[in-house]
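Look over this record as teaching material.
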Amino acid sequence: MLEYVDTHAHLDMAEFDADRSEMLKRACDNGVKTIITTGIDIPSSQKAIDLAAANSGIYAAVGIHPQECTGVTEADFARLDILSITDKVVAIGECGLDYYRDYSPRHTQLETFYHHLDLADKSGLPLIIHCRQAEEDVLKILADWSAQSPAGEGKGVIHCFSGSAETALKYINMGFYIGLGGYIGYPSSKKYRADFAAIPLEHIVLETDCPFLPPQPYRGERNEPAYVPQTASTLAEIKNLQIEEIASATTANARRLFRLDK
């Protein structure tokens, strides 16, 4: 069986409360033996850590989502620092900027984002970056940050990427990987197919963002890690490669980025 890593899930969310164990078994049965469950605030980051502690194939990322940073306090930042050094925490995030809904003031988003960058420097962990309609600011901030950080890849992943190949290469040149999910098969994503095809496979990781953004055959349903092979199949079609090559490369990329073999 092919092996996959779901590099971005939200396994703590209420959508999984009724059948979390069965959902994790389906993932394993479909070759998704490793999952990174990602925090969006302090409570969900703690839940991510708890899930990782209770399940051998689950790892945690801790962070404050840009839509969740209204009212964030210095105590929250201090707690995040403590969570980041917990066993099986492999990344800082989900963090970044979201100008699509503006649920949080932009100055608060920026302050929170900069704290995550500082924490990534302090912890040595890669970042999981959320960017929605904020590309110009995210590119500038990450370019400045990356220029002051040690050279090389492994700085993080641009989660749920949908943009030009030129933009993807800018991130890659800073040391970031590109995260692709089930949405790459949506009719609305056809305009990006040539761009997805042009992103070098050695810099792509797969994700679900579950329970959100299910692959096209499951639209309207809850997304879950078992659907990662569907995304791999779509990417294989887009890049005109065999699914075995997609699975092997993206799994190796994820294990390298999040240092899962250490």
Observations:
- The CA atoms of residues 146 and 174 lie 6 Å apart.
- Strands lie at 4-9, 32-38, 58-62, 89-98, 127-132, 156-158, 176-180, 204-206.
